[in-house]
Structures are given as C-alpha cells and as structure tokens.
Specification:
single chain, 285 residues, Diaminopimelate Epimerase, Chain A, domain 1, 6 helices, globular, isomerase, Phenazine_PhzF-like, PhzF family phenazine biosynthesis protein, isomerase activity
C-alpha cells in the first residue's frame, strides 16, 4: 500500500494544508482511525479504486471519521495522478459519506463538486462568541455588509463567523476546550472565522475545529465552499461560473489559496479547487 504526504491548496512545499493519503484495497475503518491518530494530520484520506472512473474515499481526523474533506481530496488526486491511477483533463467520481461527487482534473488543477449547499441557524449570542475567542464583540460583523454568524454546509457544518478587520481576525485566541463543547452543543464541526478586510481575494479565513482534534487548520475546502454560498446568499457574491479566491493559513505560516466557483444559477452548487504538492511517498506495512 502506498502512503503519501501532500500539501494541498498550494504550489509550494510546506505551504497549504498537509494531508495523509493511503491508496489501499482492503483496509478496515478501525485500522484507518488508528493510522490517522498515529500520523496526526488534520485529515488522512483512504482511497479505494472501484473502477477506472470511480473511487471510494474515507476521511479521518486523529479522533473521528468525517463526511468530506476538501484539502484531503485535493491531496488524494495529486497522489492518484502521480501514481497514474487518474489522467489529466478527465472527470472522476468519488463515493463519500456526503454522497457521490465529481472531481475534475485539469492541468493538475483539481476542482471538486461539493454536496448541496445549505444555510442553518443564525447565532446572536455575540458576547458568548466573543468570550470563546477572547475578542471584542463589536468586531463581529462586516463594515460594508449586514453579515451575522450563521451555520453553513456543503458537506460539513461550520459556523461562518464574520470579523470586521484583518487585525481582529489575526488576534483571535480561542478557548479550544470551550469551543469544542460549543460546537458539540450546536451540532457543527467548528467555526470558520473570516474577514472581507483584504487586498487580495474575496476573504481571508481562519478555521477552528477542536471538536475533531483540529485546533486550527491552514486550508479547508469545504468550509470555504460553504462560505462562498453564505456570501452569495448575503449578496456579497453574485456572479456564477467565475473563480473566487479565498486565503487561509497566513496566520499559521502556511499560506493557502482556495479557489471556488458558484455553478448552476437555477439550483446553486459550489465547486472548490486548488493544487497539491507531494512532500513524501512511501509504503505502508
């Protein structure tokens, strides 16, 4: 069995978000969970080939299985390309706990379909949220748009937390134990904090998911896809079939660039994509 470490949503080694990738034929989920806990990447993907166009991918954090993971999918197809299991300029399908989704490989740029976008409940407990992040509650929101904290999903639920300034975003200092409990109570994976106070791209984000053993993540494809839909529903983004750039990871020293697209105006869906760089490859015994 082949094992890769791949940095996703970057073209530079040691940027983006690292993921483990295992190409296998018969591993069971108990082994997958133990291996993910051993290597301790935010997600490790386990790929099983079904036929030349279809793959099953299971995603594990160090503590649990999750339905979908954008950066680990980018990492998976980077590894599959290197191993000649897929070809450039083709479309493939992955079976996940979030459904069967299309993945396009185009000149080594990998873009994946997300599950149906959904918005959930809003959160008006600004004082509590501010205490969770050791921040001023007046920094929650946006200077130019009426944005409120709200749950959103394109396969995984996160709370979209708008922050008015980039400085305030960088200054967030979460109480991870309390945030994990808050996430559990509200049935979300974590909090995707973002600001529109940027000179490049649409937004810059920080993602916190201590409930699943990930205090902070440097690139989260599913969360930025959910953010794309949230911003569309809040009239910040309005163009379909156009690439939107989101930044993440700068506060961690791992700059990441996530590309999203709004598709199908009649029944909106979101795609998320980027490139990956292989850091190492080996055998799993």
């Amino acid at each position: 069995m082949l094992y890769y470490v791949v940095d996703a949503f970057t073209e530079t080694r040691f940027g983006g978000n690292p993921a483990g990738v295992v190409i296998h034929e018969h591993l069971d989920e108990a082994f997958m969970q133990k291996f993910a806990a051993e290597v301790r990447f935010s997600e490790t993907a386990f790929i099983k080939k079904i036929d030349h166009k279809h793959f099953e991918i299971k995603f594990f954090t160090p503590t649990s299985q999750v339905e979908l993971c954008g950066h680990a999918t980018i990492a998976s197809f980077t590894a599959l390309l290197e191993n000649n299991d897929v070809e450039d300029n083709h479309t493939y399908f992955i079976k996940t706990l979030a459904g069967t989704l299309a993945v396009e490989v185009d000149q080594s740029f990998i873009i994946m379909e997300q599950a149906e976008p959904v918005l959930g409940k809003t959160f008006d407990d600004y004082v509590h949220l501010a205490n969770l992040f050791n921040m001023d509650e007046n920094q929650i929101g946006s200077t130019d748009f009426h944005l409120v904290p709200q749950a959103a999903s394109t396969g995984l639920w996160d709370i979209m937390l708008p922050i008015k300034t980039k400085d305030a975003l960088y200054a967030l200092n979460p109480d991870f134990k309390a945030l994990a409990e808050y996430s559990k109570i509200h049935n979300v994976g974590g909090v995707h904090a973002f600001t529109l106070d940027v000179k490049e791209g649409i937004a810059e984000s920080r993602n916190f998911c201590p409930l699943y053993g990930i205090n902070e993540e440097s690139a989260t494809g599913t969360s930025n896809a959910a953010l794309t839909y949230y911003l569309f529903k809040n009239n910040v983004l309005q163009q379909f079939n156009q690439e939107y750039t989101f930044l993440q990871g700068n506060s961690m020293g791992r700059p990441s660039k996530i590309i999203t697209k709004l598709m199908n105006e009649e029944d909106p869906r979101v795609k998320v994509g980027g490139k990956g760089v292989i850091v190492t490859k080996g055998k799993l015994y």
